[in-house]
Amino acid sequence: MRDITKAFNGTFANKNINLHVSSGEVLGLLGENGAGKTTLMNILYGLYRPDSGSVLINGEDVRIRNPHESMNLGIGMIHQHFMLVDNHSVLENIALGFPDSPFFFPDRFIRKKINTFSEKYGLYIDPDKQIWELSAGEQQRVEILKALFLESDLLIMDEPTSVLTPQESIDLFSIIRRMKDEGHSVILISHKLDEIMANCSRVTVLRKGETVGDSAISDVDERSLSRMMVGRDIILTFEKKPLPRGKEVLNVENLHVISDRGLETVNNVSFTVHENEIFGIAGVSGNGQRELIETITGLRKARSGNVSLFGSSILNKSPRVINNRGVTHVPEERIRFGIVPNLLIYENAVLKHHHSHPFSSIMFLDYEAVKGHAKDIIEKFSVSAPSINVPMKSLSGGNIQKLIVGREINNKPPLLVASHPTYGLDVGATEYIRKQLLQRREEGGAVLIVSEDLEELVGLCDRVGVMFKGRFTGIVDPSTTRLEDIGLLMTGIEAGEDS
Amino acid sequence: MDIAILLAVLKRTLIAGTPLLLGTLGEIIAERSGVMNLGVEGMMSVGAVTGFIVTFTSGNPYLGMISAVIVTAAFSQIHAIVSISLQANQVVSGLALSMLGIGISVLWGKPYIGRPLHSKFGEISIPFLSDIPFIGELIFNQTLFFYLALIIGFIAWFMLYKTRPGIALRSVGENPKASEAQGISVVLYRYIAVGIGGALAGLAGCHLSISYSKSWIEGIVAGRGWIVIALTIFAAWNPAKAFMGAFLFGGIFVLQYLLQPLGISPSILAMLPYVTTLIVLILFAIGKESRKKLHAPAMLGEMYRRGER
Ligand SMILES: Nc1ncnc2c1ncn2[C@@H]1O[C@H](COP(=O)(O)OP(=O)(O)OP(=O)(O)O)[C@@H](O)[C@H]1O
Ligand SMILES: [Mg+2]
Predict the structure, then answer these.
(1) Which residues surround ligand 2, an ion (CB under 5 A)?
(2) Which domains does chain B have, with CATH numbers?
(3) Nearest CB neighbour to B164, from listed A66, A93, A101
(4) Counting C-beta atoms within 10 Å of the first and last residue's C-beta, which end of chain B has fewer, N or C?
(5) Which residue from B164, B170, B309 is facing A106, i.e. has the nearest CB?
(6) What is the rounded average pLDDT for all residues in chain A?
């Protein structure tokens, strides 16, 4: 790609960017949130057209006008925000873009292919489930399968591992390595520097839409990479002060929840979260975490059991009632449940509070207050946005996440429920959000986190509940438990006593 | 009731339901691609008048049918261009198409008012099957239109759910962005779907003028195009369910004639199909459970712009 430039409403997302990949190479593409990585890849994939610049493939100047053409040129892409049809099954979604699937009964063909593939590589997925029934991690698996089936010469992966468990990431990278050996090329976008270091042969770093670095992986280390990206040193550590557990905030007792398919996905789960405590839930996605969180925040009805906040029951209350009692929620699928993509940024910044003081009185919204609040969040959480008057959907993935987390934590809620709080955030933002979470803990707040990132859970949490097939296989103290033991619990092997 | 009368009533029901079924199948296909086309009434009117004029002048009803299909498919592309390429509001564009089509049929049909057709579609009896008592006469001794409707209905269902283009068509209506990212041309699929919708509406319209009726009557479509739109919802955008709805409403059209001897004012009876449509839609909207199952294509009526997030 040569001299690629692309501007949205006058602000540059890409400015004279050069990027090249050779065959059999894994190129890491790095940059802060909003640096222009996704935009650049969308141009290569034909979703956007560049304002200027050219794309060369095997030395030939090509004009890629739509994804159909890029697919014909052997380019495949795993999108940062899932490109899946919610109301269709996994089978239908994969058959849609797979050129070799037969005209008649494509589902039979795809089913066979999925089965052989998951046996070989361990990416398991129920082919008959509808996309809307799947958790973020499962949807990510579908995206990956979809792209791998195409066997593209050049595969673009836009943050494929942000919601995968460590084991799933390892499996994915072994597939990538095999592809590399076969002469395929891969462009990998990730905010996890260790992944980049371990799997790429070269890195290109973007900053504010411009190329600021391009070097062989042997010439850089994590520290110099983050300096290139952000312009300062970042060391991700967790500075957690020992604190005594405070009053009980959330109490979940013998909770049973039914999934969309009528199966029991949460099976007799009990735990408590206290003031001055961060409680984590670990597990491979699809083991009931999503349904558990949805029940606590009022998005789903429980079959039996109880959920209480400060001693009074909030079971099966409406989300607004629960929110008003002081429970805020960072949902796992930010686009679908976290924002209204077509509304402006400042409107999104007051979602859930728009009906109450100080943002509205009697019937009317006080736009001054609303805008002030939005500016406040944007500044505090360094959301990079052209202005607060643009639709939410024009923000980059990481910046959307920052705004949601900012919105939910800014009012110092007694209980913050967050699924994948640092999903898609760059190192700088990850550091900041983790600090914020720890600060909530010190101030006496209770925090409940679901994450696939074990390191994050272990670093942040005072206790971690491990979920497998809807049950807690253990509640452990991460400071005294080895990571491997938590890993075992995640596969259903129970180690022993609770802490 | 006498068995012969029952047979006659049921047969009239199937005949009256045929244009509704054809129109509904067309609208289902168009709406599955995400394009709402409220121009069915206009398209059926164009199909009716084209079919009648060509049959009247050429004396060949088959030629009339084919020209009705072609002309109406072309007519429907006005809606496609305006709403897909020019990105105008689909509701407005569809309503405009209806008015335009009704106008065209009045204008073109003026010289033919009251003129009878000499060559019409006769009944075709299927060998052997038509010999079955009752059923044979009811189902296997019908006009070409009836058989076509059944065959097209089956093909539409099969294509939508069992083939790759069918998956693509439904995906385009559910999530055009994801479909585009998978290499599917959203615009092409939508144009074709609207065209098929137009072709089937044309077929439905000319059934009224060259098979169902004996001469040209102004306003021959008489609101059936609007009923088709209600039936599309009633069928939950599924061709298999369209059969039931279409023939049920066909029955209501026939009911008018059955109830007339009872002394009910014909004007009130003429309201029957439309009142029923309203009642059905209200009941559908009230039933919470059914609303969940209703399941309209997620992006129905929304325009799609390429290169946006
Ligand atoms: N369709 C669009 N309309 C308006 N602005 C856009 C659009 N797409 C991207 N942008 C802007 O371009 C910039 C780069 O966005 P991009 O999504 O490429 O960032 P990114 O590097 O992928 O970030 P992240 O790590 O958060 O995913 C952002 O400031 C974003 O607001
Ligand atoms: Mg991105």
Answers:
(1) A 38, 80, 397
(2) 3-120+127-294 (1.10.3470)
(3) A101
(4) N
(5) B164
(6) 88
Look at residue B309 in the predicted model and tell me its pLDDT: 62
* Average pLDDT of span A414-418: 94
Determine contact, residues A108/A121, Cβ cutoff 8 Å: no
Residues 83-102 of A with CB under 8 A from B: 83-88, 92-93, 95-97, 99, 101-102
Contact A276, A295 (CB under 8 A): no
Q: Which residue of A has its CA nearest to B163?
A: A104
pLDDT (tens digit per residue) in A140-158: 989 999 988 888 899 999 9
Q: What is the mean pLDDT of residues A105-114?
A: 90
B108 pLDDT above the threshold of 50 = yes
pLDDT (average), residues B164-170: 95
Greatest Cα pair distance, chain B, in angstroms, is: 65
Cβ contacts below 8 Å, chain A against chain B, sum to 78
Domain map (residue ranges) of chain A: 2-230, 248-490
Lowest average pLDDT, out of A97-101, A242-246, A475-479, B290-294, goes to B290-294
- Whether residue A316 has pLDDT greater than 50: yes
User: Secondary structure of A174-185 in the HEC alphabet?
Assistant: HHHHHHHHCCCE
Q: What is the CA radius of gyration of chain B?
A: 19
Q: B260 alpha carbon to ligand 1 midpoint, in Å?
A: 68
Write down the H helix ranges in A383-461. 397-409, 427-442, 454-460
Q: For residue A79, which of A132, A40, A41, A26 has the smallest C-alpha distance? A: A41
Q: Which CATH superfamily is domain A2-230 in?
A: P-loop containing nucleotide triphosphate hydrolases (3.40.50.300)
**What DSSP assignment string belongs to B251-264?**
HHHHHHHHHGGGT-
As a whole-number percent, the residues of chain B with pLDDT over 70 amount to: 96
For ligand 2, the distance from its centroid to the CA atom of residue A48, given in whole angstroms, is 14
Rounded Cα distance between A125 and A146, Å, is 12
* Beta sheet of A154-158, edge-to-edge order: A75-78, A154-158, A185-189, A26-31, A202-207, A210-216
Q: Which atom of ligand 1 is nearest to the CA of A396?
A: 17
Using the predicted structure, report yes or no on whether residue B143 has a pLDDT greater than 50: yes
ipTM for the predicted complex: 0.86
Closest CA to A490 of A164, A195, A198: A164
Whether the CB-CB separation of A64 and A44 falls below 8 Å is answered with: yes
User: What's the CA gap between B214 and B196, in Å, rounded?
Assistant: 27
Which of A394, A402, A348 shows the shortest CA–CA distance to A13? A394
pLDDT of residue B291: 47
Other C-beta atoms closer than 10 Å to the C-beta of A10 total 6
Give the CB-side neighbour count of residue B91, counting CA atoms within 13 A.
Answer: 3
* Residue range A164-180: mean pLDDT, rounded: 87
Q: Do domains A2-230 and A248-490 have the same CATH topology?
A: yes
Q: Which of the ligands is closest to the CA of residue A205?
A: 1
Q: How far apart are alpha carbons A410 and A116 in whole angstroms?
A: 48
Q: A1-5, A465-469, B71-75, B238-242: lowest mean pLDDT where?
A: A1-5
Interface touch B174/A85, C-beta < 8 Å: yes
Instruction: Considering every ligand atom shown, identify the ligand nearest to the alpha carbon of residue A341 and give its number.
Output: 1
pTM, full prediction = 0.86
Residue A379 burial class via C-beta count within 10 angstroms: exposed 0-12, middle 13-18, buried 19 and up: exposed
From the list B183, B295, B298, the residue facing A67 with the nearest CB is B183
Distance (Å, whole) CA A398 – CA A190: 11
Whether A498 shows a pLDDT value over 60: the answer reads no
What residues contact A196, with CB distance under 8 A and at least 6 apart? A28, A30, A188, A190, A203, A217, A225
**CATH assignment of A248-490?**
3.40.50.300
Burial class (CB in 10 A: 0-12, 13-18, 19+), B248: middle
